[in-house]
C-alpha cells in the first residue's frame, strides 16, 4: 500500500490526508537518533506515537534531507503481524521524494533519521499512518502499523538526471504533491538560452506548449527529465549539458556542444493512467482534486457524464441536475466505465477511453440518445459527484459477513450460468475473502461457513478449468482437500488441472484416490481413460523427437514444443 506498483500515483497523495499537522520533517528526531543503539526503541516524536528500533546500524553520519530522492526496501505489517505490502516481494526498491508528503507522515519523519544501509522498524500510530479512515481493504481505521525499512541510498534532487546532465534549481514552489509521469500530457512555458548569453534563442508561446512527457519537446532530453520532478505551477532554472540539449548538432543560434540555461514553468498536466491491467482502458484526468475518498465495490455513486462514439456522436448525457446514480461492481454500466469510477476520487473529472471488449462488444447497445453499434470504442467524460461507500469487512458483524458472502456467491452463480466466467471468479473470490477469517465465528456459524467455502472453492476450480487456468484450478481444489482429503469432486477437478499442467503422475494419484471412495464414478473413470491417451501422446512425441534428433534437418522449435492435447471434461459448477 506504500508503493506505486500497488497503489496508483494519486493514492500516494492520499497518504498525507489521513494525518493532521505539518508534513515536514521532525528536526528533533535526528538529535534523538544520535544516541540510539541497535535494538533500542527510540521515540521520534514528543507524543511517542512514532518510534524506531534499529536492527542494523547505518554507515557514516549523513542522512537524507527534504527534497532528496530516497531508495528503500520495506515490509509493512499490522501489529498482529499480518503483512499488507512489501517491496521485497516485488524484488524492487521503492523510491520517493523525502519531505514532500508523498508517503505517510511516519515515513517522512522516520526515514529522515536513518543513515545509508540502516535497517529499522518504524512503528507508526494512526496519526502517522492512515488515521481513522484506514486504507481499505487491507488497513482498518485507527490501525498502528509497523514497517521494516532499509535505507539503500539517496541522491540530491537538484542533480535530477543523476549524471550532472541537468541541474535544477526551484525558483517558485508548485502546488500539491503530484508530478507528471511518462504518459501524462503537460503544458509548459519556457525560454532557452546558451549558457552565459543574455538573450534567449527560443521562447515558448505565452499560453505554453503541450506535449506528452515520454515524447519530449523539441527533441531535448532536459524537458521530460525536468517535468517529472515538478509540481503544478512550479518554476525552475535548469543548467543543461549539451547531451541533454541540442548536442553536437546544435541548432539555429545554438553552437554545437553548447550548454544551455532553461527557465521552465509547469503550468498544468493531465494524468493518463491505465484502468485495466491489459492497458486497454485508459483514464485522462481533466480536473484533479485534493479529496481522498474513492468508491469501493458496491458503493452508490453519483456522476455527471457524456458518452460519445469515435465519430463524435453523443449517445449518453447526464448533466448537472440529471446525474446518473448507480452501484459499482453491479453491471449497471459497462465494465470500462465501472472500473474507471472505482479509481476516481470524489470531485475528479476525467476522460475514459473504453474499447469494445470493456464496453458492449459485438452486441452493441441502445444508448439514451443514440444506438451504440457493434464493436464500438467509447469515450466518457465523467465527473464523480458523490460517493456512498458500501460497508467494509471490518465494520460487518459475523452474520453480515456470511450473508454478504452468500449473496456474492449467488451473483457469481448467475454470472457462471450466462458464461461470464471472469465475472463469476471475481464475485466468488470476493465471497471467500468475506469469510476467510472465521476464528471468531460461533460454532453454528462456522459450520455454515465451512459449507459455503467448500462450494466456493469447488466453483472457482470449475471456472478456472473452463478458462484453462490450470494452476488456479488445482489451488482451489486443494483448499477443499486440505479439509476433506477424499472429497471426490475436489479430487476430480484437481486431476483435471494437473492434466492441464501435464503433471500426469499427480493427476493419476488424484484419480486413484477418488476411485478408492467411489470405484464406479463415471466421471473419474472417463478422466482416467483420457489421462492414458494423453500419456501415450507424450510417449509418441518423445519417440518422434529422439528419432529425428540426428536427422539432417532438425525440427523447428515450434514443432518440438507442440502442445499435448488434453481434453478436460469440466462439469457444471456447484451452483
Question: What's a concise summary of this model?
Answer:
The protein is an alpha+beta fold.
Name the features:
575 residues, alpha+beta, seven-stranded antiparallel beta sheet, 14 helices, 22 strands, 23% strand, globular, disordered N terminus
Number of helices: 14
Major sheet attributes: 7 strands, antiparallel
Number of strands: 22
Radius of gyration: 29 Å
The level of helicity is 25-40%
Global morphology: globular
How many angstroms does the end-to-end distance come to?
Answer: 35 Å
Q: Could you characterize the architecture of this molecule?
A:
By secondary structure, the protein is α+β, with helices and mostly antiparallel strands. The protein is 29% helix and 23% strand. The protein contains 14 helices and 22 strands. The chain has helices at residues 9-14, 27-34, 87-90, 105-111, 222-227, 335-342, 398-417, 421-434, 443-466, 470-483, 488-500, 504-517, 522-547, 557-560; strands spanning 41-43, 50-56, 69-78, 83-86, 94-97, 119-124, 145-155, 166-172, 185-194, 202-203, 209-212, 235-240, 260-270, 272-274, 282-287, 300-308, 314-318, 324-327, 349-354, 365-366, 371-372, 378-388. The strands form four sheets. Strands 1, 2, 3, 4, 5, 6 and 7 form a seven-stranded antiparallel β-sheet that branches. Helix 9 (443-466) packs parallel to helix 11 (488-500), helix 11 runs parallel beside helix 13 and helix 12 (504-517) runs antiparallel to helix 13 (522-547). The chain is globular. The relative contact order is 0.06. Mean pLDDT is 88; it is low at 1-35 and 555-569.
